[in-house]
Write a structure and sequence with these properties.
It contains 13 helices and eleven strands. The chain is an alpha/beta fold and 360 residues long. α6 links the parallel β5 and β6. The longest helix has 21 residues. It is globular. The two termini are 38 Å apart.
C-alpha cells in the first residue's frame, strides 16, 4: 500500500437484525438487534465496514444522524485510525465521549481499520502485528429454562463449545440456583459455565446469591452490580471464591484503568464499541497485560477475533451473533473456536437482508 486511502464519505444505515436466539436478560429482552451499519467510502474505491449495536431501536435514528454529521469532520482526511481517533476525542472533550458519541467514534475507528485492511488486501489482525489463529469461544445465552432450552444447550456442546454463559438475576436467588444447577446438569462437569447478573444486584445481595452458586464450578460471575460501582465490584470480589468479570461498560481505556486501580475484577471484558474500537483495544490490552488480567471480548464477533489474536492475556471470545443476518458470510465457529477473516474484518453486507431489515 503506497499511500493511505483518503476518506470520501461516511454512510450509516439503521437495521433491525433478526437473531438466532432472541436475548432475554435481567435488564430486559432484545428480540432483534438494533444495529447501525457503517460504510466509509475512500478514494481508492475501498469501502470500510463496521457496525454498532444500539441496544434499543430508539437510538437508531440519532446514531445515524450523529454519524452523518461526523462525515463532515473526517471527509478528505487519510484513513489513519489513531489520528482520526485523537482528533475526534479532542473535538468532543467538553461534551464527553460516553453514549452515542463514544459508540460512534468507536464504530468509525473499526470501519477505518477495515478500510486499511481492504486497501492492503490483508486481515486487520496482520496490520496490528499478529496472525489469524483460532480463539476459544463461549456460546452466549440469555436467561434460560434448562428444560425448555435443553436441546439448544446440548447442541452448543455438540458443536464443540467448551464454555457456555447464561444470564441470571431476573428472579429470586432460589430461581437463579435452580437455573444454574439445571444448566450444569445438561452440559456436564467438563464444560465451563459462566453467569452474568447484568448489573441487577447490590453488593450485599450479589454476594448472597453467588455464594449459593459457587458449588457449580463457575468460571466467572459477570457484572454482579452496577457497572460504575467499582467499590461494589471490589466488595463482591473480596467476599467470594468465584472470579468477578466486568468491562463491557468501560468507556475507553481510562475507565479500565480506574477499575484495575480499584481492584474491581479478576478478569476483563472490554467492548470494542465502548473501549474505542481497535485503537482503544490496543491500549486496553496493554493494561490487561500489566495487571495480569485474562482478557475476553464482548459482542462484535467479527472484529473481536482480530483484537484477541494479538492480546497477550487472551482468554475467551463471546459468541453472540448480532450481525450475522446482515452478512453475506456470517462467522461460524469451528469446534468452539473463532478465527479472524480478511481482508479487513472479512465482512460484506447481504443486499437482500439490507432490503428486508433496514429501518425507515
Amino acid at each position: 500500500m503506497a499511500t493511505l486511502p483518503t476518506i470520501r464519505s461516511l454512510h450509516p444505515r439503521p437495521v433491525l437484525a433478526p437473531m438466532p436466539r432472541p436475548l432475554r436478560t435481567a435488564s430486559g429482552a432484545i428480540p432483534a438487534a438494533p444495529l447501525v451499519l457503517i460504510d466509509v467510502q475512500t478514494d481508492q474505491d475501498v469501502v470500510g465496514r463496521a457496525y454498532v449495536f444500539c441496544y434499543t431501536p430508539l437510538v437508531l435514528k440519532p446514531m445515524c444522524a450523529f454519524l452523518g454529521d461526523l462525515a463532515g469532520l473526517v471527509a478528505g482526511k487519510p484513513v489513519a485510525p489513531a489520528d482520526r481517533f485523537r482528533e475526534l476525542s479532542q473535538t468532543f472533550r467538553l461534551l464527553g465521549r460516553q453514549g452515542i458519541v463514544g459508540m460512534a467514534l468507536s464504530g468509525l475507528d473499526m470501519a477505518l481499520w477495515d478500510a486499511l485492511g481492504r486497501a492492503a488486501d490483508r486481515p486487520v489482525v496482520e496490520l496490528i502485528g499478529g496472525t489469524a489463529r483460532p480463539i476459544p469461544a463461549y456460546d452466549s445465552f440469555g436467561l434460560v429454562d434448562p428444560v425448555a432450552d435443553r436441546a439448544a444447550l446440548e447442541a452448543s456442546v455438540a458443536a464443540g463449545f467448551r464454555a457456555i454463559k447464561i444470564k441470571i438475576g431476573e428472579g429470586s436467588a432460589a430461581e437463579d440456583a435452580a437455573m444454574v444447577r439445571g444448566v450444569r446438569d445438561v452440559i456436564g462437569p467438563d464444560v465451563r459455565l459462566m453467569v452474568d447478573l447484568n448489573q441487577s444486584q447490590g453488593a450485599t445481595e450479589a454476594i448472597r446469591r453467588i455464594e449459593r452458586l459457587a458449588e457449580f464450578d463457575l468460571t466467572w460471575v459477570e457484572e454482579p452490580v452496577a457497572a460504575e460501582d467499582l467499590e461494589g465490584h471490589a466488595r463482591v470480589r473480596a467476599a467470594l471464591p468465584v472470579p468477578v468479570q466486568t468491562g463491557e461498560n468501560w468507556w475507553f481505556p481510562a475507565d479500565m484503568a480506574r477499575a484495575v486501580a480499584a481492584g474491581a475484577c479478576d478478569m476483563a471484558m472490554p467492548d470494542l464499541m465502548k473501549i474505542g474500537g481497535i485503537t482503544g483495544w490496543l491500549r486496553a490490552m496493554a493494561l490487561a497485560e500489566a495487571a495480569s488480567l485474562p482478557l475476553s471480548s464482548h459482542l462484535f464477533v467479527e472484529a473481536s477475533a482480530h483484537a484477541l489474536a494479538v492480546s497477550p492475556t487472551c482468554h475467551f471470545l463471546e459468541y453472540l451473533d448480532m450481525a450475522g443476518a446482515m452478512l453475506a458470510e456470517p462467522v461460524r465457529p469451528a469446534g468452539g473456536m473463532v478465527t479472524a477473516r480478511g481482508p479487513g474484518f472479512g465482512m460484506a453486507w447481504d443486499d437482500d437482508a439490507l432490503a428486508r431489515f433496514t429501518v425507515t
